[in-house]
Request: fold
Amino acid sequence: MILNDGITLYHGSYTEIDSVDLSKCLRGKDFGKGFYLTTSKEQAISFIKTSLLKAKGVGRIEEDQRHGYVTEFKFHLEKDIDCFEFDGVDKEWLYYICANRRRALSKTIKSLLKDDYDKYDIVAGKIANDDTNFTLDAFLAGTFGNIIEQRSVDFAISLLMPERLSNQVCFKTEKSLACLKKVGATRYDI
Reply:
């Protein structure tokens, strides 16, 4: 279980986070459009480098910026928030991530899901970091067999090494953001 009341969550970025604007969040992420945090401070620190590269690529920051921030939040669950947490790495998790990362296939893949995970305010589970893109592409291309066959799913998951994946929490709605209280931020030179 990831989402316990009072848990500390971290966000690594090229900048300190003072407020969240969901309209600026990108689509194509594991659990869809939203504000992502992790339970792992190390994971947040490692994401700073990726965030710096993306921000430089779109001209948001100067080319010589070599630092970023990990912003720390406390999570307090509100009564009217609908949360879903994937118990582990399974077929549902894999399909949901594939549907969100590959929009052209989204409708087809989402039809295979048992639930509409987009209806939740918060979705939590394992992160499929950028190292998993090759495996996801091969899975969707049918390299491991038909994507609806359990053996293809199992093989793709085995390649993802789920025991090594960190956790992530996606805050998808404005009301879910009310569950977060900023505690502080730490600068890291990369």
Q: What stands out?
A: The radius of gyration is 17 Å.
